Amino acid sequence: MRVDFYLLSHGTVEAALPRIARAARDAGERMVVVAANAELRAVLDRALWEQLPEEFLAHGMADAPHAARQPVLLAETCDPANGAKFIALADGQWRDEALTYERAFLFFAPNMIDDARACWRRLAQRAEVEKHFWKQDGARWVEGP
């Protein structure tokens, strides 16, 4: 199981998530994007349509018809209604249910770094978890120490 920590130091989750979702799709994987806040889910919904206009990134809301068919599913909980193996925690809140996925992406803002560090330390105690930390270098993501 792999967990990728993404520090949003120069941007927002709605700017970063579409590229990660596209990479998951290109790898043939499905993704659940979790945010407890309905307003954030609506912002992410728009970003998935608008951020990469040259590509069609099919997605839907977990409470909408045909949720199981969606390659990217926006949800309030970690339920993999679309059979996803990847999960993105878009609101910066770690949920242990993410450990049931093959890969998790935790996006967090600088003001949430203490919570992310605590999560990193907790996950370090689990031998089955491979952790990676990503930070922004201009417009690119680079793996940090």
Could you characterize what this model shows?
The protein has 145 residues and is an alpha/beta fold. It contains three helices and eight strands. Strand 7 and strand 8 form a beta hairpin. Helix 1 crosses helix 2. The two termini are 19 Å apart. The relative contact order is 0.24. The mean pLDDT is 94.
Salient structural properties:
8-stranded mixed β-sheet; alpha/beta; 145 residues
Shape: globular
Which class do the helix and strand fractions yield? alpha/beta
Please bin the fraction of helical residues.
25-40%
Q: Low-confidence segments, ≥5 residues, pLDDT <50?
A: none
Q: Strand tally, please?
A: 8
Spatial order of strands in the largest sheet = 3-4-2-5-6-1-7-8
The description of the largest β-sheet is:
8 strands, mixed
Total of DSSP H or I helical runs spanning 4+ residues: 3
Compressed to H and E, one letter per element, the order equals EHEHEEEEHEE
User: How big is the Rg?
Assistant: 14 Å
Q: What is the percentage of strand-forming residues?
A: 25-35%
What average pLDDT do the residues reach? Answer: 94
How far the N terminus sits from the C terminus, by CA atoms, comes to 19 Å
